[in-house]
Amino acid sequence: xxxxxxxxxxxxxxxxxxxxxxxxxxRLIQAAGNDAEAYRLSRPAQNEFSSDEDLLSWDGDxxxxxx
Length: 67
Known about the structure:
The chain contains 4 helices and no strands. The protein is mostly helical.
């Protein structure tokens, strides 16, 4: 089975492209559409949306002196 490339594998290759080739790559990526299907198919990581902090606690900080 073929191993998937990671961003760390791809970025050095993109860095070697000429400006014209980078523009062509960018246009090909745009034509491919968005990542909605990939996000729909893959589950979020366990810690992707988690936090140990109270999510609303930051909202009240600093408003004590506002009148």
